[in-house]
Amino acid sequence: MTSTDMLQIIGESGQTVSEDETGLPPEKLVEMYECMLRTRAMDERMINLQRQGRIGFYVPSTGEEAAQVGSGMVFGADDWIFPSYRMPGTLLMRGASPRAMIANCYGNSEDLCLGRQMPVHYSFAEQNVVSISSPIGTHIIHAVGTAYAMRLRKTDAVAGVFFGDGGTSSNDFHSGMNFAGVWKSPCVFVCSNNQWAISVPFEKQTASESVAVKAKAYGMPGVRVDGNDVLAVYQAVSAAVARARAGVGPTLLELMTYRRGPHSSSDDPTRYRGDQADEWLSRDPILRFRKFLERQDLWSEDREQESSTRVKDELNAAIKEVEKLPPPPLDTMFTDVYAKVPKFLREQYEHLIETEGTGHEADPDAAFPL
Amino acid sequence: MAEITIVQAVNDALMEEMGRDEDVVVLGEDVGVNGGVFRCTADLFDTYGEDRVIDTPLSESGIIGAAIGMALYGLRPVPEIQFSDFIWPAFDQITSELAKMRYRSGGQFTCPMVIRTPYGGGIRGGHYHSQSPEVYFTHTSGLVVVVPSDAYDAKGLLKAAIRSPDPVLFLEPKRIYRAPKTEVPEDDDYIVPLGKAAVRREGTDFTITCYGAMVPVAVEACDKAADQHGWNGEVLDLRTLVPLDEDALLASVTKTGRLVTLQEAPKFTGYSSELSAIVAEKAIDVMEAPIRRVAGFDVPFPFTLEHVYMPHADRVLRAIEDVMTYE
Ligand SMILES: Cc1ncc(C[n+]2csc(CCOP(=O)(O)OP(=O)(O)O)c2C)c(N)n1
Ligand SMILES: [Mg+2]
After folding, report:
1. Which CATH number applies to B2-184?
2. For the whole model, what pTM was predicted?
3. Tens-digit pLDDT profile for residues A78-99
């Protein structure tokens, strides 16, 4: 294989184009498909809420569901995930609840992060999904440190880290790949190459013919995968995870996909790109997987209707509940800065309550411009 | 005269300086075809071409490091860091390399450049799109640190910064990027000199120091103090944090004898702490009340509770009342 060859199992009409070695039983295939539907439905719903001004910001991932769900299916409960901000499907697949994710986007009192971060910056300790931050690339080296700790503790867990094509230009991509190569870390690097970093196209990000080829220089294998083919994603990530678990070493995966929507709810892609998005519409990962399932009689129009209605109803019910909740209480601004609230912070809090009370109205005009 | 926004002022300054001096180049993430995520570099790409308006890979240390190399060779780079919250990968390049080049080489090598970056809260951006990082840089010898508070200054100060022989960190207050607008002379090559503060509101009873997006908050608080108590406050917009216009600070407190400092960055070891120390060292005998600092809380910048975090006019007014009623 050359570095630009790409693993593909399902063709665009749902036919099998190379051997399916995933060994996934029918119920797992259906579970993945439904998770992809849920991911898409959540995207549509959250973007809508953002447009209506009910949440402040959102990062859509329409068209990237296979990359998210296919990899999310692979990792075990004891493995750790270091996610990027554009992969709700992976978190859903790992069992994060849609309601908790919605609460994060509202940043209210039910948000596990207590409204301290912008929407989509999730933390799910219960699912071993490590806190997402905005700075690009910083988490790549964290995964390598965690992978080291997993071996020192003699577990067979692995760490999976996810980032975009833009993330491969960050300092910590280099550090992470380099450390992992030297340490033969039980770590899997997953790059979702959606070909854009806001307005910067892949060719301006790197002169490499692919992301996968970068692996060679760090002493690990690199594999390019059709990121809109959920089975190819599952198969490639499985192989990489097995390799890591067996102690052989890390792998870099490049999932080829396309950012069909804007970078975020604040971005206007018509300023910098034409309509390649149309070309990618026909490669829709959900449609493709549906055709595959239908060919095997695992899916039908009736099931599609039933499933999408159920998913939407679930989301709407969760939104209705979450929307009623109050903002986090004022003292949460001062807790978790340190393990114990130090005296000077306690005084700042007490002074705030004494002089301004507890009633504070949010500025309705403040809106995130990016 | 035209009424323009700070975004437009920054864009005009870049457009004009690139036209005046072909050594001026702009580089950063999304600054070219997209014209910058806040539109500050709009139309530069079409006007000056991709060799001088460069969409870089996603690496802040790369952007600043490359700009240093360009400046060493004689170009006048104006790198953009998309949000000041993402400047940290470049901290080493800025503090170890850029700021010290002139000094460590005995003046043989210099790196004049302007690092533009939006800073500050009030836009519902959570802590990675809201911080005010000025003191990390005011603490670094060799850097000039500028914070404009309106379009007139943004244009004039940016032009001065681009022509300055020293490296400048130009912090743009994104909360007031698009409103209010201010009057700027059309087609006028004016400069606002670095290192000079401006009195935004004259008064004799107390002084408020401020910069950037806190200037309108200080003015509002002063208006309230006048309405509610008949006190007449002076608002001193520092404009350049390094070098500080110490004469303006001391002149104002000598006149008023009372000082409230205002910043949105966290309080502890903030820029206002330095102002307070200077006044304590050099003007303690004219002071009629203890100095009061109004600042952000010493916590990471929150998302949902941002409106509680951000200093507002009523909070400033209480500090004014404290210094005015002190006996
Ligand atoms: C260090 C840093 N610099 C700049 C940004 C602003 N920014 C946010 S996302 C982004 C592009 C990221 O592109 P990519 O890694 O390809 O991920 P994608 O958004 O395409 O999923 C940029 C420049 C940031 N968050 N962090
Ligand atoms: Mg990308």
Report:
1. 3.40.50.970
2. 0.96
3. 999 999 999 999 999 999 999 9
Phi, psi (rounded to 5 degrees) for B318 = -65, -40
Please tell me which of the candidates A121, A134, A169 has its beta carbon nearest to residue B57.
Answer: A169
Q: What atom in ligand 1 is closest to the CA of residue A167? A: 15
> Are B304 and A107 in contact (CB < 8 Å)?
yes
Ligand 1 pocket: which of A82, A132, A136 to mutate (most atoms <8 Å of CB)?
A136
Tell if the CB–CB gap between B303 and A57 is shorter than 8 Å. Answer: no
Yes or no: is domain B198-324 CATH 3.40.5.60?
A: no
* CATH 3.40.50.920 domain extents, chain B: 198-324
Answer whether B304 sits within 8 Å of A369, measured CB to CB. no
ipTM: 0.95
CATH superfamily ID and name for A26-322 = Thiamin diphosphate (ThDP)-binding fold, Pyr/PP domains (3.40.50.970)
Nearest CA to ligand 1 atom 25: A135
Q: Averaged over A123-152, what is the pLDDT?
A: 98
Q: Which ligand is nearest to the CA of B60?
A: 1
Q: Quick check: is B129 catalytic? A: yes
Backbone φ and ψ for A201, nearest 5 degrees, come out as -75, 160
Degrees, nearest 5: CA angle A106-A107-A112: 120
pLDDT of residue A370: 47
Helix ranges (H only) for B85-175 are 91-92, 101-104, 134-138, 151-163
Q: What angle do CA B197, B202, B205 make, to 5 degrees?
A: 115
